[in-house]
Specification:
By secondary structure, the chain is mainly α. About 65% of the residues lie in helices and about 5% in strands. The two termini are about 40 Å apart. Bound molecules: fe (ii) ion (2 copies). One fe (ii) ion binds next to helix 9 and helix 10.
Length: about 300
């Protein structure tokens, strides 16, 4: 809730309109995230009334506010259902035409009837959305687990081949971090939800480390920079999703912390790789990047 001036007994008033929404509902969260992404949302105030710490307007109950969509005007007036949507749309450029259309005779009445018809379907749609969300998270965590398994194996491959002391120290340090990532992802993903292709990810990871190690330290550093560039984007996409839709408590900070490590790995490897890699190394890095993307697609499914 982006709200100044909260008191213990009342929702904040300074914004011209306070949107009271059910943050425990995946459908509402998605819709509110859409509104919050609009530049005009800075002029709105959002209050998640499913959160027991969020104070309610006077003479209302949480059950009442959760049963229908509500907005509260700066003068304290409450509106709900279709009228509340219209009041919200009125304040959003690009959506205002909907509010204008709702002023046509009979349109608001029709919108309210449609909203009332939707309400009995809401629990079933919420259950479907929760199942979809749980499936999405399981698939993404499976791909993270496969990736971190592969990452540990990359450094095992490097250490099996490399003799350069600086490269070995780099690989040992990074491998310890990747093993820590793997443990953290494992804590979120039950064993029976993990990828069935783990032996393949271990082998692919080992080869991704061992093959460039045969060519020398620069090839390894460039490979790690390419892998970590992909991994950073992969985590970012999951972080963006959780920022928009929320998720189980603790998952977002875990992913953000892993991503910060991967960014550090990427930058350290890129600095060690130096500038202007040769044509063969560039081609290899491209294969590694494409292979990582393909592995994620497969690990989400299998
Ligand atoms: Fe990692
Ligand atoms: Fe990493």
């Amino acid at each position: 809730m982006n709200a100044p001036d909260t008191t213990a007994t009342d929702v904040p008033l300074p914004a011209p309109l306070t949107v009271l929404y059910d943050g425990a509902c995946p459908l509402c969260r998605r819709e509110i995230a859409l509104y919050q992404g609009l530049p005009a949302s800075a002029k709105l105030c959002f209050a998640d009334v499913s959160d027991s710490a969020v104070p309610l307007p006077p003479a209302t109950t949480r059950a009442q506010l959760l049963a229908r969509f509500h907005v509260r005007h700066a003068d304290g007036r409450l509106e709900s259902g279709a009228a509340a949507f219209v009041a919200l749309w009125q304040r959003l450029p690009g959506w205002r035409w909907l509010a204008v259309a709702a002023r046509l005779p009979g349109v608001l009445w029709l919108l309210e009837r449609a909203y009332r018809a939707f309400l009995p379907l809401r629990p079933a749609l919420q259950a479907w959305a929760r199942r979809w969300e749980a499936g999405y998270l399981a698939r993404e965590l499976r791909s993270d687990h496969a990736g971190e398994t592969g990452a540990v194996a990359i450094y095992a491959g490097v250490l099996a081949v490399a003799r350069d002391p600086a490269l070995r120290a780099f690989a040992q340090r990074h491998q310890a971090t990747e093993a820590d990532h793997l443990r953290r992802v494992e804590a979120w993903l039950p064993a029976d939800h993990r990828s069935r292709l783990l032996p393949a990810w271990r082998l692919a990871g080992w080869l991704t480390g061992a093959l460039p190690a045969l060519a020398g330290p620069r090839a390894v550093y460039a490979t790690i920079a390419a892998v970590e560039t992909f991994v950073d984007q992969h985590y970012q996409q999951q972080i963006d999703h959780l920022l928009a839709h929320a998720g189980p408590e603790g998952l977002l900070p875990m992913l953000q912390s892993c991503q910060a490590d991967e960014q550090h790995h990427r930058d350290e490897a890129a600095a060690s790789a130096g500038a202007s890699p040769g044509l063969a190394l560039r081609a290899w890095c491209r294969v590694v990047g494409t292979g990582s993307a393909a592995a994620v697609v497969a690990a989400r499914r299998f």
